[in-house]
Design brief:
The chain is an alpha/beta fold. It contains ten helices and eleven strands. It has a five-stranded parallel sheet, with helices on both faces.
Length: 269
């Protein structure tokens, strides 16, 4: 039984969906601390800081990669499930306008944009709720479902039906008894606890996690096998082809430009 734990991101990138769809249990880690940026290892040694993507989503514009950025109301070091989005700047209209400009001519643009207007203008109490809504929306499109108002429970119902991926269940960690890292509890203890609580024998992770913080010895000593994601974004139809193919953008870019079968093929790798 394979598990992946991932913070809820804003309209996540394609490798995020490729990873969660190739696991049995997707544990949404909404109770970990919100951060704007992470430290990433780089080839040759050392680290650099980059976006955490909890409040950013990369789309393709005529000028290259453009980020949809969420304004956050700061109130200390809070978990994502207690971090509030600042609606005073009118960002939903700005994001919808950017999406219309970038994807207005895409194959599935009008249906997609209509749903996204409703999703973004709904208003959410926390960043976690907003980001989970974007993940659920994307899973509906990936699975070929017409459900703009779906929830995690809806997704779990879909996953009981035949579908082309490994995923069986989505779990929101703040709704479980699993405590987040912090106060003497490190990430390894949290991973082990999550796997044991949810009945997983494999933990699926990315290369960045392996290089940055995973202690393979501790995890494997607990009877959990580590499996590293091996997925490369294949080319698919994009807007502004004269600028070349740009891999691993927001899920928005893929579903705007391709039909369900091609979307599924790209995410299977």
């Amino acid at each position: 039984m394979r598990l992946v734990g991932y913070q809820p991101q804003y309209f996540p990138r394609l490798h995020y969906f490729a990873r969660i769809l190739n696991t049995d249990i997707f544990s949404i880690s909404d109770h970990v601390q919100f951060v704007k940026s992470h430290s990433f290892p780089v080839s040759g040694g050392g680290h650099k800081r980059g976006k955490s993507y909890q409040a950013h989503s990369p789309i393709k514009s005529s000028q290259g990669v453009q980020f949809l950025t969420l304004p956050i109301m700061h109130g200390g070091l809070l978990p994502i499930s207690q971090t509030n989005v600042d609606y005073s700047h009118g960002w939903p209209n700005k994001h919808i306008g950017a999406l219309q400009m970038c994807y207005g001519s895409a194959a599935r643009a009008q249906e997609m944009l209509s749903e996204l207007k409703g999703l973004l203008k709904q208003g959410y109490d926390t960043l976690a709720e907003l980001n989970i809504a974007t993940i659920v929306w994307a899973l509906a499109w990936i699975l070929g479902k017409d459900a703009p108002h779906a929830t995690v429970d809806t997704v779990n119902e879909w996953l009981t039906e035949p579908h082309p991926f490994r995923l069986q269940k989505v779990v929101v960690q703040s709704q479980t008894s699993i405590a987040p890292p912090g106060e003497g509890r490190d990430a390894m203890e949290w991973i082990i606890d999550t796997c044991k609580t949810l009945g997983a024998t494999e933990y699926y992770h990315g290369g960045t996690a392996s290089a940055a913080y995973l202690d393979a010895g501790r995890i494997e000593a607990a009877g959990i096998t580590l499996v590293e994601q091996d997925w490369t974004c294949p080319p698919y139809v994009q807007q502004f082809p004269e600028d070349g193919f740009m891999p691993n953008l927001s899920i928005i870019d893929l579903v705007a430009n391709e039909g369900v079968e091609r979307v599924q093929t790209v995410l299977k790798g």
